Amino acid sequence: MGTKFRIDIIALFLFLSIAIIGIASVYSATSNQGVFTLFDGRSGKQLVWLFASVFLGVVIFLLNANFFEVFSMYFYVLFMLLLVLVLVIGVDINGARSWIKLGSFSIQPSEFAKYGTSFAVASIISRIGFSFQNKKDIIKLAVVTLIPMGLIVIQGDMGSALVFLSFIPVFYIEGLTPTIILIGLFMIFVFILTLVFSALYFSIAALLLLFVFYAFTYTNKKLLIPSITIVGLTIFFSMSVQFLFDNFLKEHQQKRIQVTLNLIEDNRGAGYNVNQSKIAIGSGGFSGKGFLNGSHTKGNFIPEQETDFIFCTIGEEGGWIMSSITLALYIGFILRLYYLSSRAKKKYKRIFISSLASILFFHVFINIGMTIGIMPVIGIPLPLVSYGGSSILAFGLFIFTALKMDATRDRDLESVFS
Amino acid sequence: MRSYRLYYVYAVVILVGFIYIYRLFQIQIIDDKYALIAEKISLRKQTVYPQRGLIFDRNDKLLVYNEPVYDLMVSVPIKLNGIDTLAFCKLLDINKEKFIQLLAKAKRGSYRGKSVFKKNISNVTYARIQERLYEFKGFFFEIRQDRNYKFNSSAHLLGYLGEVSKKDLELQTEGYYELGDFTGKKGVERFYEKQLRGIKGERYFYVDRSGVNKGSYKSGKLDYEPTDGQDISLSIDIDLQQYGEKLLNHKMGSIVAIEPKTGEILSLISSPFYNPANFNIQNRGKFYSRAINDPTKPIFNRAVSAPYPPGSTFKPIMALIGLEDGAIKSSTHFNCAGEYRLGKRIIRCHFHPSYTSLKQSIASSCNTYYCNIFKNMMQSNKYKNSEDAYKSWRSYLTSFGLGSKLGIDISGEYRGWLKESTYYDKIHGKDRWNYARIISLSFGQGELGLTPIQIANVASIIANQGYYYTPHVIKKIDGIRSIPNQYLVKNYTMISSSNFKPVIKGMQEVTVSGTASDIAIDNINIAGKTGTVQNPHGKNHSAYMAFAPIEDPQIAIAVVIEESGYGASWAAPIAHLMIEKYLMPDTMNESSRPNLEKQMMNSNLIPYKYKSKIDKSLYGN
Ligand SMILES: [Zn+2]
Fold this sequence. Notes:
heterodimer, A: 2 domains, B: Penicillin-binding protein 2a (Domain 2), Beta-lactamase, six-stranded mixed beta sheet, binds zinc ion
């Protein structure tokens, strides 16, 4: 028994602190909807889910430490099947088919898919002989991550699909050449420039740049072919972005991106939420308007405030102090998890825990960035704080699984391949 | 390799943390625009209107009180989804097109997040909607105080409320009024606006996206309750006022009665009048255009705004000036052979015993006597020329408060007509006119115009033998006699008090043996003077000025009845009835002269040309 509950106290403290902030925030955000105490309405439900995930955490701690590693791929398949199932029997809410109704409950398999995929990723990379230089291995990794992404895109939930980009830092830590990441960053750069200046002007600028480059280096024949290739590919990418943006994105998605890039001002349509969100947070000042006293929160000016825009409540009622504390707790929790991953003796555990850290980071990075207007509106929850049973349960499971792995690290042999 | 890559990840995570905390610092602390925007979006100020002061008469009878009116307001912007507009329209008794039209108008006129959707909702409609108001999020009521009246009386005097005009809003210095506020527009309501209005209260509260109240701002720290306006008591006697209105029924004219000792206005009536309730906020819309189109001008407050040549009622003033200036002595007699000759011009007089004394000249209203006074004065050696003499004559009159506004506390006062000497210079040429050109001024005709209140004030001056208090209707403010200072100052005329005695004697003779002798009242000594004012547009105006009792004057009165005939026929009897009603209200109840009273009340003296065009709905309720 002794080792079974040897849980990392710091991580547990951070987890509980964040969860408590979450309950209070949901209560505040919904207190104007006929909710009288913390235990009523949505904050009450949130509390129930939180207890449920703690209960599942206890169950996880009672399991054999190797249980997860052995059944990794089964978990993965199970959660992928749920993603397929949701496409068959799911119900449409807010234009996305992401929910399966079970009586009075609805579960959102996409929230659990991150958890499932992390098992597969950890399992594949920790296999003996795995190498990022091996194309077969790369393809395997690509397949296990692209399957859930694809299925979730089909559901119509672009935001949750993007979460799977969180595995990139995990791959990087484990040895993926940074070139790919740099190429990725370069593509994001091109993507933004294209939307700002249009593909045509971008291409003209790129060609001019190539010409100037050639004028200075025409003696060096070796540079000519690669530079032409790079510029050509870049222009091709830019044109594709423009084409896809114009033809495949829905109008509200186009607007969301344009609003984030400050290309259009739209405080009534797509930009409404972000604008109101900034007003709510900005009006919080140094110490906030006080718990349950946020006029913007009370006034329902921000739709979906208890879910994706929950950070507004914290910013408005708790001011800069409370939003900074909340942010610091998240950063601390993420760093602690990365640290826990680094002290794991088994590669499998290391990868699993760092997947959790990366996914958490992605959520926090995007969600808070969105509420303060520096990230596009991507509908993903703030972990442990946003209202939502699936999200709370999935993160609860995820976190307790990771903490169980950490708690049992002493019995593991030092990983040979580190 | 793995560990240094992990450090890069740590670095990125920490960096993002700092960037976000900095960004939060920027929008939450450095940039205060968000706080201002947030307040603008969600903070609302509600004005809480005080109770306007009540108005009582001199015997503390309630005249004017408050009645709530309801304005249906709408929050702007409004979210209509979730609102059953059809049901809403039904409750309001409007159709869909009207709803859209009203909403568009409200959106255009919105101010600080709210706008009037429909004004002056009736009590019944208010009750009907209020019950279901929770269904119509974003709509709410604002309650304001309209006026209602205990008596269908005294409309001109009391005046009415209206929305503050754009011009007044721009001109105001205290910043009290906001668009749509009510303010006194006419009469006492206007003059005592500051005392009556009180202090508005304010409540600050938050609204949600649909404009629904979400609780008070800073738990009500900035709110304050309204302070009710001060009640005022007027000097008018509502019984006398109503009695006078009965007497003036179906007549065009005025009655003004003043208490000489104080300058308090006991009664001020202009006829035709209207029911004041028809001119309150809720009803004026219906009645205003009718009143405007009525040729007898019921809105026009003749008592303070209409100048009439005073006719023979001017003779006592003329006598006083003659005595003071030395043009006559109290013993002076003039011959009158029924006319006054002035070259080719003949000014007629009526039959009366000749070799006329001052007393007789007043009693029988001898024109010749006054032409002589005027001639003597104008040609006196005291003066360099006619212009000089005229200036002197004019200054006597201005000391009676003529030719300028008296400064009464009822709006719409007119200064009357009293020309400067330069006026005659312009018409006749400088130094090219003398008394002969302006002789008709001596008997109250020509370029002379006195409002009924000015005539009544002259009566008051004679009663006081030389001074007057500026006439006013205010008696008490907030229960105490703290009336404006200008009403507590004696204004002296240029006539010495001793010169009044012979004139008063003459005026007494008017009611003993003179033009008003057949309507004398037993037990009351009245000093009066009839006037029959030539009217180029129709029948003569009947005028009368009097005060009583002579020994201890309690009431000074002026009556003018337009286009009705001799002063003795209408104005004098009406004035005497008023005097009797005021001085002997108890015996008056049985009416000492029921036939005279009946005759006065029932005679319709509205000129025939107007009769068919009168809108009767204005007067009743
Ligand atoms: Zn005569």
